[in-house]
Structures are given as structure tokens and as C-alpha cells.
Request: fold
Amino acid sequence: MKAVYTWSAILVIVFASVVGDVLLAHAMKQVGDVGALRRRAGLVAVIRRTLGNPNFLFGVTAMAVAFFSLLFALSWGDVSLVAPAAASLTFIGNAVAAKIFLHERVDRRRWIAATLVAAGVALLAG
Reply:
């Protein structure tokens, strides 16, 4: 039963991390070049524009959910399983989400890396 809790928490970590990463990336694309904005309007304008973006706030919330899920997972499972499984599955999820939601170009090398990572997770799980 402990394994079910651990893997459930890992899946929540992965989902929340991917959602958070996508939302934060989208928010920062909407904010634009923060260096140019800071030079033009100042640091307060950068902070105001960033914190005023709903995608940023939802992204930070999703990342907080991922963090607290990590704490639960570590209380149920071994760090030697939880940390690599969560990190590697998040890597795979980010590649897929970047392609689908952010319309990023994910080259063949990254897909090969994601496949190798998936194989590593399968070895961990078995």
C-alpha cells in the first residue's frame, strides 16, 4: 500500500510540476524581456507585471503543490526512488507539454533523451 501512495504522490509531483512549468513559461513570454522592461520602466514595473499575470500566480501555486507532494512522497518512499522518478518523469512531461501547449520545437535529440529517461524510470519501478 505504501508503494501506491508513493507512486500516486510522484504522479501528482509530475503533473503539478509540468503544469507549473508551462504556466510560468507562458507567463514570462507574456511579460516579455525583463531586462529591457527593467531598463525602460524599473524593477517595480517588472515585479508588478510579473505578479499581475494570472498565469504566473497559477504556475507558482502548481509548483507549491508539487513541492508539498514531494514532501509526502519522501515520507512514504525512499529518496533513491522518489527524486529520480519525479525528476525524470517531469523531464518527459515538460518535453511533451512544451511541444503541445507552448508550440516549442523539440528536436530529435530531446525525444531520444526522453525515451532513455523513460527506460531509466522503468528500471527504477521494476
